[in-house]
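Hello forum,

I keep getting stuck at the same step: I have a sequence, I want structure tokens, and every attempt I make locally crashes halfway through. Rather than fight my setup again tonight, could one of you with a working pipeline run this one for me? It's a single chain of 237 residues.
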Amino acid sequence: MLGGMAALRPGPATNGLSARRNGLSADVIVQAALRIAANNTGERLTLSRLGQELDADPTVIYRYFRDRDELLLTVADRMLGEMLESLPVAGDWRHRLSELLRATVETFQRYPAIGAEVGARTTRQANEFRAADTLIGLLREAGLSGSELVATYRTVADLILSFAGTQATYLMLDPAIREADELSWSREYRAADPKAFPELAAAGPALAEVDEAEISGRIIEMIIAGVEAAIGKAGPS
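Reply #2:
Ran it on my machine without issues. Output:
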């Protein structure tokens, strides 16, 4: 995410004075990173871009974060915190789990420059622990326990984070590339040779009608169905 950061090194002691003059802090830096990531223009969150946003020497960031990875994970954890604040507190476990999964995808789409990098990561910070605690609690409320609970938790988390990360990565592509990919459903797929690809040719006309909202909804429904299957497999608790 912050390409080129490893090539830079902290400057002289004047960086501390500059930081104080600019009102910098770890929180200010994280908020600046979130603003850049929320632009949804495919702009990568580089160290130089962050310096521009802060109106400061980019290397001053080293006064608050050990390295690129620590900054990335801290920003990602703040992103998870925003997501958790949007969740409903009422409703049965299916409704609240669906909303948790939906909010995860939407948050990664809101901050694609971050989401594209952290789908396979763990922040090891408070908001990620809160998210894990929430998901485990919902699965326990659903009736799971023991090894079935923890295996289902890991599976659900990996599935939704993989999908959310893929969505964020897609939004980071050049708009022209995204347009070509989207048009492929109504062009190349629809024109597939029916002799070579009979099933694809039969389904082709309908493929372009499926939008991202429907795909996201169906993935969430499948995850819920998988949890219900795990409950059935576990039997009475």
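Confidence is low (pLDDT under 50) at residues 1-20. If your local run keeps crashing, start a new thread with the error log.
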